[in-house]
């Protein structure tokens, strides 16, 4: 099971740390790293801790000693698998963080695995690692989750204990049991041959009697003599055997006794009558009771308990282990995974040593060749150090969880303050953005107003210039018109005088004078002049009338004399004046069609309305791309409002363009052909008159602008 996504977390190379799962978890891990090294590193139990991202946060000195890897090479990495496995693989702490119990059990097949009853979510596993040491080592792992104040798992702690000696002792015990059972079977066969069939029947009765009663007193004192068929050694002699013995029997007794006594594992044996037959030297050293005081008695309970009660071996001999082991070893026992019919148990004995001792018991039955239980052997191991280490580890874990809870609470408070600060800052930023948006809008309006002012000033200057030109032209034109009228009168008189001369020319007798008059008449083409002069005078008067009309239109368009006063004006007159001014812009591109309706005069600023008309008419002319187009100008009203519209059959506009036509400086004309202010200024002028502009356009068919204005201007 590699560190990949299917195993619960993403793959990582050696020494590489994951991106943090959450800031709170990493901060909690850093606080733990800063606050716990003294208590955690000082633990006698090899242990390490990982955070929720499977990154090592602690690697204590006992762990350094066991694995040979210093903490600085492990802290901050995900390489905690390296001391035990050849390839990246989940260890027990990883499973605690990311796997259910069923998956953990499957991850350690064929090994000793169990849940820890004292710590929810914790597990214990024993496994063999052949590559450790000279011939492999057995390691016991214990891993439990670390939780914050809200009960959320934020990491895991794992302890390791070398139990190679204990497992070797168990194996030695098993081998000893097998050898003892073989010797006992052979001795039983020899006794059976010597005693005959009756002896076997007697032995069956004794065994049945010993196994048939579940009373604890019967387990220890429920029988009288030791049966010959249930032979076991008692300090080099046969229990229940006659003085002479059987040939070949005595050479085996010292060998068995020497083997049992020489075992490094504390052990004792009882026969089917619950009588102690062996109490080896290791048991003497561990318990402090001499074998001479125990062998041959039923006091195997005495070194352990204040009152008489069966030990684990008694329960196995009596056949009541299945039903009664729970009542004597409450949740502290289990079946042996190695020896069939054997049990293991742990218990605390407060009267042993200075502050009590924890002992681990393992008891197995001894059987004859027919499979009958003829006794039991029980080993014990002092596991006080391991239990104290577990207790210290549990205390460290509780302290660690309390510290994590405190740090989590502090982080929560800090996060709360930080969130409040962030909220206030966001509110301040939002207010700043709002004010900035307002300032931006005000700047845009100011820029637009400045552009409108500049345009208005330009138009005003143009209007003043046009008015000045019109005034200057109007004076000489007035002279010409006045003189032209006099000239017409003079010419009429001259023509009458000439006609009279021609009448008297017939009676004139001076031939020389007549010849000269005729020559002069022909030279000046008098007859042609008399016919052409009236036409010349008529055309000249028409020209003077046109000049006068242009001058008057310039004055009407500029309205310089109005000084931007609101006044009543006929919109149609302003449209005509504007068309006359821009005639040169449109006469080569479109025909102008006027469809005027009856409308009243309105209260307005005539020069500005004329500017709106001019912008719309010029835009309509520019929109016509065909050889010659059409511009229709209409007027109408409903009493309270009047309207005028300019419609063309030009190229039209898209919806995107229509949404921006009133934006300042927006134009679709080529560079240098437009400022993008015409419609923007027109929109501002119409808004100033409390009116509105409606636009309708279709690409390829044309555009229509309609301006709606109130008849009476309201100052509010």
What descriptive keywords fit this protein?
716 residues; alpha+beta; Beta-Lactamase; 4 domains; 22 helices; 21 strands; disordered N terminus
Briefly say what this structure is.
With 716 residues, this protein is an alpha+beta fold.
Q: What is the H level of CATH, i.e. the homologous superfamily of the largest domain?
A: PAS domain
State which percent range the strand residues make up.
15-25%
Number of domains: 4
Q: Give the C-alpha Rg.
A: 61 Å
Identify the CATH architecture of the largest domain: 2-Layer Sandwich
Q: Please state how the strands of the largest beta sheet are arranged side by side.
A: 2-1-6-5-4-3
What portion of residues is helical?
40-55%
Kindly report the average pLDDT value. Answer: 76
Structural class of the secondary structure composition?
Answer: alpha+beta
Q: State the end-to-end distance.
A: 82 Å
Shape: rod-shaped
Please mark out the parts with pLDDT under 50 across 5 or more consecutive residues, or reply none.
Answer: 1-22, 34-39, 196-256
Total number of helices: 22
What profile does the largest beta sheet have? Answer: 6 strands, antiparallel
Quaternary structure of the protein:
single chain
Number of strands: 21
- The CATH class of the largest domain, by name, is Alpha Beta
CATH topology title of the largest domain: Beta-Lactamase
């Amino acid at each position: 099971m590699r560190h990949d996504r299917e195993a619960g977390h993403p793959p990582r190379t050696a020494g590489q740390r994951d991106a943090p799962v959450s800031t709170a978890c990493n901060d909690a891990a850093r606080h733990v790293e800063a606050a716990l090294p003294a208590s955690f590193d000082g633990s006698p139990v090899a242990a390490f801790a990982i955070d929720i991202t499977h990154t090592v946060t602690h690697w204590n000195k006992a762990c350094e000693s066991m694995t040979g890897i210093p903490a600085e090479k492990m802290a901050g990495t995900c390489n905690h698998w390296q001391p035990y496995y050849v390839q990246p693989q989940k260890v027990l702490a990883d499973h605690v963080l990311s796997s259910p119990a069923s998956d953990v059990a499957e991850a350690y097949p064929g090994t000793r695995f169990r849940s820890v009853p004292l710590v929810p979510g914790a597990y214990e596993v024993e496994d063999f690692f052949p590559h450790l040491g000279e011939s492999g080592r057995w390691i016991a792992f214990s891993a439990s989750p670390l939780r914050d104040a809200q009960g959320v798992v934020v990491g895991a702690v794992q302890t390791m204990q070398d139990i190679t000696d204990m497992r070797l002792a168990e194996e030695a015990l098993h081998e000893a049991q097998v050898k003892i059972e073989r010797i006992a079977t052979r001795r039983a066969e020899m006794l059976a041959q010597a005693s005959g069939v009756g002896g076997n029947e007697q032995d069956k009765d004794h065994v049945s009697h010993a196994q048939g009663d579940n009373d604890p007193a019967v387990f220890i004192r429920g029988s009288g003599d030791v049966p010959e068929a249930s032979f076991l050694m008692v300090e080099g002699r046969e229990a229940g055997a006659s003085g002479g013995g059987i040939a070949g029997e005595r050479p085996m007794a010292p060998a068995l006794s020497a083997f049992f006594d020489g075992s490094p594992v504390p052990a004792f044996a009882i026969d089917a009558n619950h009588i102690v037959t062996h109490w080896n030297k290791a048991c003497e050293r561990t318990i402090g009771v001499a074998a001479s005081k125990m062998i041959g008695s039923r006091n195997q309970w005495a070194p352990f308990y204040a009152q008489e009660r069966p030990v684990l071996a008694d329960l196995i001999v009596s056949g009541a282990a299945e039903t009664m082991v729970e009542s004597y070893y409450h949740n502290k026992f289990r079946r042996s995974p190695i020896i069939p019919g054997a049990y293991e148990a742990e218990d605390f004995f407060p009267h042993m040593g200075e502050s009590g001792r924890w002992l681990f018991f393992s008891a197995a039955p001894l059987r004859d060749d027919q499979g009958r239980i003829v006794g039991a052997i029980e080993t014990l191991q002092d596991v006080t150090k391991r239990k104290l280490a577990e207790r210290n580890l549990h205390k460290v874990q509780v302290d660690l969880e309390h510290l994590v809870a405190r740090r989590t609470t502090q982080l929560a408070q800090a996060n709360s303050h930080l969130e409040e600060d962030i909220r206030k800052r966001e509110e301040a930023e939002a207010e700043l953005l709002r004010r900035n948006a307002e300032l931006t809008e005000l700047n845009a309006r100011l820029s637009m107003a400045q552009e409108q002012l500049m345009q208005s000033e330009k138009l005003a200057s143009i209007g003043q210039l046009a008015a000045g030109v019109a005034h200057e032209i109007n004076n000489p034109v007035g002279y010409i018109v006045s003189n032209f009228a006099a000239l017409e009168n003079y010419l009429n008189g001259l023509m009458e005088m000439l006609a009279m001369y021609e009448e008297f020319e017939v009676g004139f007798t001076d031939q020389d004078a007549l010849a000269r008059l005729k020559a002069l008449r022909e030279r000046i083409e008098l007859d042609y002049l008399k016919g052409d002069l009236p036409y010349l005078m008529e055309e000249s008067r028409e020209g003077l009338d046109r000049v006068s009309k242009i001058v008057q239109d310039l004055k009407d368009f500029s309205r310089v004399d109005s000084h931007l006063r609101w006044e009543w004006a006929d919109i149609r007159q302003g449209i005509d004046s504007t068309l006359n001014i821009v005639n040169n812009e449109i006469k080569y591109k479109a025909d102008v069609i006027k469809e005027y309706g009856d409308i009243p005069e309105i209260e307005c600023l005539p020069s500005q309305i004329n500017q709106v008309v001019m912008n719309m008419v010029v835009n309509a002319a520019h929109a016509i791309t065909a050889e010659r187009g059409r511009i229709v100008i209409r007027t109408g009203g409903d009493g309270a409002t009047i309207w005028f519209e300019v419609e063309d059959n030009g190229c039209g506009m898209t919806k995107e363009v229509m949404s921006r036509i009133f934006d300042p400086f927006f134009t679709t004309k080529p560079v240098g052909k437009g400022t993008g202010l015409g419609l923007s200024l027109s929109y501002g002028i119409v808004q100033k008159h409390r009116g509105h502009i409606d636009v309708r356009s279709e690409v390829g068919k044309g555009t229509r602008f309609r301006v709606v204005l109130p008849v009476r201007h309201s100052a509010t």
